[in-house]
Specification:
Elements (H helix, E strand, L loop, with lengths): L1 E5 L3 H12 L3 E5 L8 H7 L2 E4 L6 H4 L9 E3 L16 E5 L4 H5 L4 E5 L2 H6 L5 E5 L3 H20 L7 H20 L13 H7 L5 H11 L10 H10 L10 H9 L5
Parallel strand pairs: 1-2, 1-3, 3-4, 4-5, 6-7
Antiparallel strand pairs: 5-6
Helix pairs in contact: 6-7, 6-8, 6-9, 6-10
Length: 259
């Protein structure tokens, strides 16, 4: 079966490598270097895996056929409204760096459809399952946001201060999910708390951005920082931010000063 992978970055190629090893025919589309071939790539595929940065996704949506299954591996999407009108879409997310997956290190991932488990079956991959697509999407975006704030606060890996912060942040994530119609319990999946823990420290780009901004308020990231995009969209009202989300409100106010 041919699978089109939209996004030939680190995570897209890591997932594509697994699928290729499992016997699937893979065709990559890299929006950074090609523009014209997208329609051909998706028309020839039986299934489409999306691994582009979240800010690139709106430009691809109009080209996606609604009669083919979508696997969403992009993190940073706050709302499932993006996929309204697509009858068959599923998520794969969790605390896995691309280099770890490529090195066949044990990686835990959350899925929203059992078909994914069969497609990506490898001894080093462990899956849990939820039917809460919206919650998985939101966890993938919010953990990046809270990781930036951990960097801004200068919290160090394995410190008591970071552990306390992660507890407060994960509690807030439950509140934010429920305020937006998702399940608070999704934070207990690999895509939630475990991914938050992984992201709140180096080599996470989100944590790195916060840490470097703390040291130099004029710092501007040279690479994509998904949490910055998510903060901008939250500030525009893409999701509801309840009063109890104190850390998130603090960061939204602080983010007005980000370069």
């Amino acid at each position: 079966m041919k699978i089109a992978i939209l996004g030939a970055g680190a995570f897209g190629t890591a997932l594509g490598g697994i699928l290729a090893n499992n016997g699937y025919d893979i065709d990559y589309y890299d929006s950074r270097v090609e523009k014209e071939r997208l329609s051909d790539v998706v028309s020839d595929a039986k299934m489409i895996l999306i691994a582009v940065p979240s800010m690139a996704l709106p430009y691809l949506i109009p080209y996606l056929p609604k009669n083919k299954p979508l696997i969403i591996a992009t993190k940073g999407i706050l709302s499932d409204k993006t996929f309204k009108g697509f009858p068959d879409y599923m998520m794969i997310s969790g605390p896995g760096f691309a280099d770890d997956i490529k090195a066949h290190k044990q990686t835990k991932l959350t899925i929203t459809d059992k078909r994914i488990e069969g497609m990506f079956k490898q001894d080093y991959l462990i899956f849990d399952y939820t039917d809460d697509e919206k919650g998985v999407l939101m966890c993938g975006a919010l953990k990046n946001v809270y990781a930036i704030y951990a960097g801004v606060k200068g919290l160090k890996r394995d410190s008591k201060e970071l552990k306390k912060y992660i507890k407060a942040a994960s509690d807030e994530m439950r509140i934010v999910l429920e305020a937006n119609g998702a399940k608070g319990s999704t934070v207990d999946c690999y895509c939630g708390l475990p991914d938050l823990i992984l992201t709140c420290g180096y080599p996470s780009r989100n944590y790195e951005y916060g840490d470097l901004w703390r040291k130099n308020h004029n710092y501007k990231a040279e690479k994509t920082v998904e949490g910055i995009s998510a903060l901008k969209r939250i500030s525009r009202g893409e999701i509801a931010v309840p009063d109890e989300a104190i850390l998130l409100k603090e960061l939204l106010n602080l983010s007005k000063n980000f370069a």
